Structures are given as structure tokens and as C-alpha cells.
């Protein structure tokens, strides 16, 4: 039995609490999941994420440029220096060769662009903040880049219902700031909030850090305005919470990564700004203890729990090494970030402290610190939010974003570590415990085909063997499109293809993305 000893419980003037117990030895997780091998479409010896051949779209001509320049004077960009950053994704792993970047300001302009492109068979790559991680937001070849960057206006905000309506290019952090000034918040928060656009968030059905509390965008998005491939504007920009008048068409565009239409405006239900927010950063000696802490946390914090996130010790090493962040607690095999958001500070703090007393008394948590002040909260959150950035400094990164039964999520990391051994530089696990969503990331000094062959399709077979999803929240984009069959039946994928063919018969919208190469 682990020896429990509380060493300190300090309360500083900054309301930064620190809890410490003696550090238990780590219990390395030895469980290896049973892998159910399954033959799937798209498997085999091909490299499924490689770009397919260019489809026979037209190439941009001087006459096309003339049309765009007249439609968008000063906002039709052909300068290669400006185009460079729009042609490459954030991870710098997918690079297109588009020669035109269009920056519409209005839905009508988007409609005219698409009508023209559809007529002349020109492919289009819609782009928001270009923060995606699956190569979904950049051209693969010479597709015209349609940026939402200048569609950045809030259209309406109803302070009684909390419903915000805005253009697709609003940056998530700007929306959060706009709402906070009005005592509301966005139901969505992500590490990329400073750059990502709400239209991109909706198009990828981004999950993020608050999904545990506020649910997915499939629930909080009330309406969408979408421009279809042929330029028709689909006005589903409802602000109703209840509307059962037939098919919920907006759901087709949420998570379809710009392959069915370009989202131009969004209405979204926003929660009230909580009056009290606390963040606890805790250390655990094993993933089993972390899961038990999660169970207790749900029971004891209940309605005020807004996030339960984790990172492992390898993530912490990368944060320290590459970003020079300082671990605020004793070194531990696992770290948890818990956020509470409620309306009565004293009540919330009491609940949180009762919870912390319980998990520390049972030695489930070996060390921890709590923040209630904004800058300290931000500092604690950055330990979780900046792991992706730290990984980018570590080398070439292989990224996996899987949904699994929560009790299995770390088995995949330990199994992969064992499988890859010294061949990988880092094998790390972090993610959204509350959502059963693991981010398994593996790095190597350089892109290494032999290492990749050891990871894939094994990681997808492992996931599908647990009835998991090969893309929990990042989408399929270019990189994961051919792995869709690990998580969806052939019938479902065929139906997706039928819907694509109906809405975009020429296939001009974000080609080579989401749908596997076997379905066009
Ligand atoms: O980089 C990743 O793998 C995850 C990014 C993001 O979804 C997160 O939760 O931090
Ligand atoms: Zn995530």
C-alpha cells in the first residue's frame, strides 16, 4: 500500500495552492491490448496517405485571373511570397503549389467565386486559420485557395439567449474576447485559438478542451450559412434551439472539411461566463490511478467540472526541453489538468478542495497545484495546450488522434513504445480523458519510412480492434482519408460518396480530402 504523507498545503497571496504527498514509485503499465486483425479496404502495401494523381481540373488562365481581380480587387493574391504560407500546412508536411489566393469579404463574393470555378472546372481549397493537423486546409496541387480571413465580422449577438452569429473567418480567440466582454464564453476552446477560424472549427467539428462540459459543435451550432459548389447559398442560419422541420442539413457540413460546401456564417449557442474558474494541475503515479481520479472527479465535482485533460511524463520533458516551461509540481509519470467552472466561488473552491483532499488522502494523486487567478490559470493550461508546439521542435512528428474506450487509451502508447523501441525519438500520449480521446504522437529526427511502416497500419488496426475511431477530432483531411474504412462500414463510405456526388458533381471542393481514393 502506498504511504500517504501530506507535506505541504500552502496558500499564497496569489491564491495559488500547492498540495504535495510523497512520490510513489511509478507502476509501468504492462497491459497490451488484444489486437483484432481485420482486413480492411485501403490497407495493403500502398502508402495510403500519399497524394493521389492530380485530377483533370482546369488550370488557372489569365482570363480567370481577370475575373477574380475584377470581383476581388486587391484581394486576388498571386504574389508567390504571400502564397507560400497558404500553400503549406502548420506541420509543414503538406505543400501545394497554388498560384492564386482569394480573400472574399462577403457570402455573395464566395458564391460568385464558386459559381465561376464550378462552371470552369477549377478546383478550390477552402482555408480558415490553416491550423489543421491532417493536411485538410491546404491545396495538394494547384487548387485555388479560398481564404475566409477577411470574413471576420460578428453579425449579431443576443445577450438573452446567448446566441452569436458571425462570419466564418472570425478567429476563435477574438470571439472569446468579444463574448467575455458581454459575460458569455465560446463553448469551444483549443490550443490553436489564436489563429483558427470558427468556420474551420465547424468544418472539422473541432473538439478541444471544453467538450466534456459543453458538448460537441454538433450540439452547440444552431445554424450555418453555406455556399454550395455551384454557388447556391444555403441559408440554414437558424438561431432556434428547437427545429424539427425535417433533415438537419447543417450537420452535413459540420465535420465534412469543406468537401460539401464552404461555411460562410455560423450561429452558435454560447454559455454564460462562469463567475469562478479553478484549474488544478496534478501528478499521478500510474494511468490506473489517473482513471480512478477521473471517476472520483466526476462524482465529486459534477456540474462544475469543465475539463479533465492529461499528458504523460514524456510530454513534460518536451515542454521543458523545447519550450523551457517549468514543471510546477513534482516529477510524475502522468499529469492531469482539471478545470472547474461555476457560479459561486466559495462553493466551487470547497468542492475542489474536498476532491483534492480525497484523491491525495488515497494517494491517487501524488502532487498538485491549484490556480484561481487568470495568469496562473493560463500558465497551468499552457502545460497541456503547448504539447503540440513542443513536439514540432522535437523532429518529424507522426500524429494519431484516436477515440478509444477510456480505460484503454494509454495501453496504445505503452504498446507502441515497446514496439518501436529505439527507432522512435519520442513516443508520447496526451489528450482528452473525459472524451476518451488520445493524442499519440511519435517523433523521429527525420521522416523515416521504415518507422512509419512499423506504426501504420498497426495503430489503425489496434484502434479498430477496440471499435475506436481513427480520427476523434482532427478529421481525415489528406493524410487520413484512406484509413476511413477502419472506422466506417463500406456502406457508410459509399453513401458519403453519393452525397458528395450530389452536392459537388464535378468534385471541385477540397479534392483529395476526407473521402478515400476509392470514392471520388
Ligand atoms: O497535436 C496533437 O496531436 C493534438 C492537438 C490538439 O487536438 C490538442 O488536443 O492539443
Ligand atoms: Zn485534442
Automatic annotation (TrEMBL):
Q: Which PROSITE patterns match?
A: FAD_PCMH
Q: Where is this region: Disordered?
A: 36-60
Task: Keyword check for Metal-binding, yes or no.
Answer: yes
List, alphabetically, the Pfam families matched. Answer: FAD-oxidase_C, FAD_binding_4
Question: Could you tell me the Gene Ontology terms of the biological process aspect for this record?
Answer: malate metabolic process
Q: Name one GO molecular function term.
A: metal ion binding
Could you tell me the keywords of this UniProt record? FAD, Flavoprotein, Metal-binding, Mitochondrion, Oxidoreductase, Transit peptide, Zinc
What does it catalyze? (R)-malate + A = oxaloacetate + AH2
Cofactors needed by this protein, per the record, are: FAD
Q: Tell me where in or outside the cell this protein is found.
A: Mitochondrion
Write down the EC number.
1.1.99.39
Function in brief? Catalyzes the oxidation of D-2-hydroxyglutarate (D-2-HG) to alpha-ketoglutarate. Also catalyzes the oxidation of other D-2-hydroxyacids, such as D-malate (D-MAL) and D-lactate (D-LAC). Exhibits high activities towards D-2-HG and D-MAL but a very weak activity towards D-LAC.
Family per UniProt?
Belongs to the FAD-binding oxidoreductase/transferase type 4 family.
> What is the protein's given name?
D-2-hydroxyglutarate dehydrogenase, mitochondrial
